[in-house]
Design goal:
The complex is a heterodimer. Chain A is an all-beta fold. Chain A contains no helices and 12 strands. The chains are: A mainly beta, B mainly beta.
C-alpha cells in the first residue's frame, strides 16, 4: 500500500543554517505530495504541495521538488529562523491521505 | 485561520465516561476527516466522511464512532474512555474525494485528558 517515510528527528539547527528534511514515498498511482507544519499548540498547516513529477512547491522560503525517479519530496530551506521551530509532516494523497511520522525541528539563536 | 472549527478546545473527563467532539468544516468542503495525535503514535487516521456518508475507516476503535450531519458538521463520539485515549483529536476537511491534489485543512484540535 501507499506510505510515506520521513527522516527521524529531532533536528536542531542554528539560526541561518541550511535545512533538509528527507521524505520518500511509496505509491501505486500518481499521488500529490504535501508538506505540513505544526507549531506548538496548533493544528497542521499546509506549507506547500506538488501535484506531478518535477513540480516544485514553495512557500515562506521552503521548497520541495517532486522527484518521481527517486520517489522523494525532500523539504529544504536555505536559512532557517527561530520561528521555523515546529514539527514538519510529509504527506501524500492518492485519494487517501498518508502522513509521515513528523520531524521535530528546533532552531536555536 | 484554516476555516475549520473544533470544539471544545480542551476536555478533561474520567475513565469510563463518554464525550463528543465537534467539527465544522471549511465552507464549501464536503469531506471531513478525524485524526488522533498522541506522543507515542504520531498522527493516526480514524475515519473519513464525505457528504454525510462514511468514506474510509482507519485505526478507529469500536468504542469510537462518528457521523456527519446534513449541514456537514461532524461529531466524534468516544465512549468507555480509557487513560490511553488521552490525546489531541484533529478534524480536517477538504473539498471532496475526487481530486487527489486537494489539500486537507486542519482545525486546532481538541485536547482530551482522561483521568
Amino acid at each position: 500500500g501507499d506510505s510515506v517515510t520521513q527522516m527521524e528527528g529531532p533536528v536542531t539547527l542554528s539560526e541561518e543554517a541550511f535545512l533538509t528534511i528527507n521524505c520518500t514515498y511509496t505509491a501505486t498511482g500518481y499521488p500529490s505530495l504535501f508538506w505540513y507544519v505544526q507549531y506548538p499548540g496548533e493544528g497542521l498547516q499546509l506549507l506547500l504541495k506538488a501535484t506531478k513529477a518535477d513540480d516544485k512547491g514553495s512557500n515562506k522560503g521552503f521548497e520541495a521538488t517532486y522527484r518521481k525517479e527517486t520517489t522523494s519530496f525532500h523539504l529544504e530551506k536555505g536559512s532557517v529562523q527561530v520561528s521555523d521551530s515546529a514539527v514538519y509532516f510529509c504527506a501524500l494523497s492518492d485519494y487517501q491521505f498518508y502522513f509521515g511520522t513528523g520531524t521535530s525541528l528546533t532552531v536555536i539563536p | 485561520d484554516s476555516g475549520v472549527t473544533q470544539t471544545p478546545k480542551h476536555l478533561i473527563t474520567a475513565t469510563g465516561q463518554r464525550v463528543t467532539l465537534r467539527c465544522s468544516p471549511r465552507s464549501g468542503d464536503l469531506s471531513v476527516y478525524w485524526y488522533q495525535q498522541s506522543l507515542d503514535q504520531g498522527l493516526q487516521f480514524l475515519i473519513q466522511y464525505y457528504n454525510g456518508e462514511e468514506r474510509a475507516k482507519g485505526n478507529i476503535l469500536e468504542r469510537f464512532s462518528a457521523q456527519q450531519f446534513p449541514d456537514l458538521h461532524s461529531e466524534l463520539n468516544l465512549s468507555s474512555l480509557e487513560l490511553g485515549d488521552s490525546a489531541l483529536y484533529f478534524c480536517a476537511s477538504s473539498v471532496g474525494v475526487l481530486l487527489n491534489n486537494s489539500p486537507l485543512h486542519f482545525g486546532n484540535g481538541t485536547r482530551l485528558t482522561v483521568t
